[in-house]
């Protein structure tokens, strides 16, 4: 699905030198590289504060901890996403209220958010799934009207831009109260281990987030609240400093792959290519097709036989997972339930060449023809 090795070889000497410099400095934890990366990411995102942490799941947890929520408070998020989003809600003894997504964009449906709001609702977590922003214009309107926090789970869309109807453009993850991301190796901006960050424009929240990520400690050895230990280490930070200037070109390379796939599959009546929303650029963390002939699983099998990896993101609705089970009326989740049976994600990354793309698309189309 990804080719991290080829990507590394292109920047190997620069990255190796940077890592060796950190080794020489022995400033492994909270070294200057972390601060430099933090500042550079703040500039890239045009946001006041980036708070680095150990991974994208911690970023979500720390973000929610900073909002002073009480046990049982309700957080609305999508039923169709990676589990980390709801996992942290459960860990903090908050109540996850899962709602359906939009069939074309795979992101949370604002009308469903409205319908799910109660007296106990405190926050919305839109997930910018597969590399495209959720409908933040509507979501921010709803949040403002109901005085709700918005925490953007931006693990899959770093570098995407959202265009508001007044002409203002903002980076994904910088529109809500807080934004979170992951630097897991296969994410669009990935390090060579684990990493994550929280973003905010709010000075007081930034102070709070830093304290929570550091054992609830605001003054050395004075613990004002129960926090966690969650840090981005200096080696990962120095690697990310080498990769951040390449992020836009990485995202562009992914878009080119998506263009190739779009073109190849556009005429096939049993394949729906991913829709590009009008108000968000797409950074294609995943390229996800919807297969309409009920042969999705057979297609995945056929691709595997031809040594083409393809993944089902995601096979089970979160509301049906044992850990997060939520009583629900399936009719309210028609899009999620349809997507679970139709989606298949093809390889997409910065190193795919035309020969590989031709092979992949030929094999997919060969299978689809055989099924007619
Ligand atoms: C990857 C991911 C996370 C978690 O990030 P980790 O760094 O693996 O903890 C959270 N949310 C979404 C949507 C993700 O894709």
Structural features:
Aspartate Aminotransferase, domain 1; alpha/beta; 3-stranded antiparallel beta sheet; 7-stranded mixed beta sheet; Aspartate Aminotransferase, domain 2; binds pyridoxal-5'-phosphate; 14 strands; 372 residues; 40% helix
Largest sheet: 7 strands, mixed
Number of strands: 14
Bound molecules: pyridoxal-5'-phosphate
- Strand residue percentage: 15-25%
- Structural category: alpha/beta
The rounded distance between the terminal residues' Cα atoms is 27 Å
**What low-confidence regions span 5 or more consecutive residues with pLDDT below 50?**
none
**CATH arch. level architecture of the largest domain:** 3-Layer(aba) Sandwich
**Helical proportion?**
25-40%
**Topology as H/E string?**
HHHEHEHEHEHEEEEEHEEHHEEHHEH
Rg is 21 Å
* Distinct helical segment count: 13
**CATH level-four homologous superfamily name of the largest domain:** Type I PLP-dependent aspartate aminotransferase-like (Major domain)
Mean pLDDT: 97
Read across the widest sheet, the strand sequence of neighbours is: 1-9-8-5-4-2-3
CATH class of the largest domain: Alpha Beta
């Amino acid at each position: 699905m990804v080719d991290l090795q080829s990507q590394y070889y292109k920047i190997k000497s620069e990255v190796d030198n940077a890592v060796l410099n950190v080794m020489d400095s022995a400033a492994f934890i909270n070294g200057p590289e972390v601060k430099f990366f933090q500042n550079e990411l703040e500039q890239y995102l045009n946001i006041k504060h980036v708070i680095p942490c150990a991974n994208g799941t911690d970023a979500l947890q720390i973000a929610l901890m900073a909002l002073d929520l009480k046990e049982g408070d309700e957080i609305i998020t999508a039923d169709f996403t990676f589990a980390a989003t709801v996992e942290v809600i459960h860990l903090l003894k908050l109540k996850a209220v899962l709602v359906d997504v939009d069939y074309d964009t795979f992101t949370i449906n604002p009308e469903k958010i409205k319908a799910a709001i109660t007296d106990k609702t405190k926050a919305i977590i839109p997930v910018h799934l597969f590399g495209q922003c959720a409908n933040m214009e509507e979501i921010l309107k709803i949040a403002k009207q109901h005085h709700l926090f918005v925490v953007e789970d931006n693990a899959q869309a770093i570098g995407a831009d959202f265009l508001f109807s007044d002409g203002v453009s903002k980076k994904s993850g910088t529109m809500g109260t807080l934004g979170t991301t992951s630097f897991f190796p296969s994410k669009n901006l990935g390090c060579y281990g684990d990493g994550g960050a929280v973003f905010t424009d709010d000075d007081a929240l930034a102070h709070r987030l830093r304290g929570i990520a550091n054992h609830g400690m605001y003054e050395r050895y004075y613990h004002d609240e129960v926090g966690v230990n969650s840090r981005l280490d200096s080696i990962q930070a120095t690697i990310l400093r080498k990769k951040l200037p390449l992020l836009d070109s990485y995202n562009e390379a992914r878009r080119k792959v998506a263009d190739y796939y779009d073109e190849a599959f556009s005429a096939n009546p049993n394949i729906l290519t991913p829709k590009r929303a009008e108000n968000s650029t797409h950074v294609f963390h995943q390229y996800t097709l919807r297969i309409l002939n009920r042969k999705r699983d057979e297609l995945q099998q056929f691709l595997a036989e031809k040594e083409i990896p393809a993944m089902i993101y995601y096979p089970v609705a979160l509301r049906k997972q044992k850990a997060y089970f939520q009583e629900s009326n399936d009719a309210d989740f028609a899009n999620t339930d349809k997507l679970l049976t139709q989606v298949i994600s093809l390889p997409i990354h910065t190193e795919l060449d035309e020969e590989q793309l031709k092979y992949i698309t030929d094999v997919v189309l060969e299978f689809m023809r055989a099924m007619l």
